[in-house]
Amino acid sequence: MGDRRVSNSTAADAYTHFIEVIRRRRSVRRFEPGRRIEREVLLKIAEAARWAPTGANTQCFDVVIVDDPDMRERVLDVFLAQSNRLIDHVKGFPAVKKTYMTNTVAIVIVLADARWKAAFPNATSTEWEREYQENNERILLASIGAAVQNVQLAVTAMGLTSAWLSGGGEDTTNRDLQALLGYPDCLRAIGTIPIGYPEKDLASRYRRPLQQMVHWNGYDASKFRPDAMVTHYVSEVRPFAMYRGEEDAAHWEDADKRLGPWREAFTSDTPNPSAKLP
């Protein structure tokens, strides 16, 4: 076997390309109308999902690719109903109308297969049953999240863009998708990814400072985000952080207004300088 080690320069080049794809990934909701896509491209995107890490290498998901225009419209109808439920019953959430999905070239739906939790660590005594059952659900969801992320990165690498709709995991939406697409009860649509060509250049999105989220060799209490900061985000910052095209919140023209007394916490390395924990 040959030497598989990678030189420092090669690794640096690979990382540069890799992080650029990651930084270009966006949840985009404005696609160019009238575009088409070849199945060869969609299969390359599915191939990226195939290599996602999964618990016990179970590969505990299937991928439904909707590229037929009539079926796309029917899937769109499911999500239009889902967005209306958000507006009616989830007051305060900055819901987005799903009409933008009309201009998608394809929709990828990642189905979680819960039967494969049997391959994860399962307790042999009643004392530990709940702990392992609950953790197995987390393993399943983490596996599906990895597949969805691989799909989104592959979409970006192919010059396309996408969004991640989690609403398919809701019982009502999942039942509607199941009736439409015909998958069995043991599967659930955890991730729905509409794909299209971006209508305009993609802007950045708000990101926390790197050092705020990194802890070296233990948890740094000065980086803990206090409960009141979380509450302020939900009530005042969320719609701007979700959709505004600027990575650094300190550069928002209305940063003082939107971030309020928590401006320093949102934009500095230490949101909790007192290092007090609840």
Structure write-up:
This protein has helices spanning 8-24, 39-50, 69-89, 126-157, 171-181, 210-213, 227-243, 255-259, 263-267, and strands spanning 61-66, 106-113, 161-162, 187-196. The protein has 278 residues and is an alpha+beta fold. The chain folds into two domains: 25-196, NADH Oxidase (3-Layer(aba) Sandwich); 210-267, no CATH class. Helix 2 runs antiparallel to helix 4 (126-157) and helix 3 runs antiparallel to helix 5 (171-181). The radius of gyration is 21 Å and the shape is globular.
Layout of helices and strands, plus pairs?
Layout: H1 8-24, H2 39-50, E1 61-66, H3 69-89, E2 106-113, H4 126-157, E3 161-162, H5 171-181, E4 187-196, H6 210-213, H7 227-243, H8 255-259, H9 263-267
Antiparallel strand pairs: 1-2, 2-4, 3-4
Helix pairs in contact: 2-4, 3-5
Distance between the amino and carboxyl termini:
54 Å
> Could you tell me the mean pLDDT?
91
According to DSSP, the number of beta strands is 4
Helix content estimate: 40-55%
Number of helices: 9
Beta percentage is: 5-15%
pLDDT < 50 stretches: none
CATH topology of the largest domain: NADH Oxidase
**Shape designation:** globular
- Biggest β-sheet: strands ordered side by side in the sheet: 1-2-4-3
Overall CATH architecture of the largest domain: 3-Layer(aba) Sandwich
CATH class of the largest domain: Alpha Beta
Q: Which sheet architecture does the biggest sheet show?
A: 4 strands, antiparallel
Radius of gyration: 21 Å
- The sequence of SSEs as H and E is HHEHEHEHEHHHH
When the domains are counted, the total is 2
CATH superfamily of the largest domain: NADH Oxidase
- Helix/strand/pairing class, anyone? alpha+beta
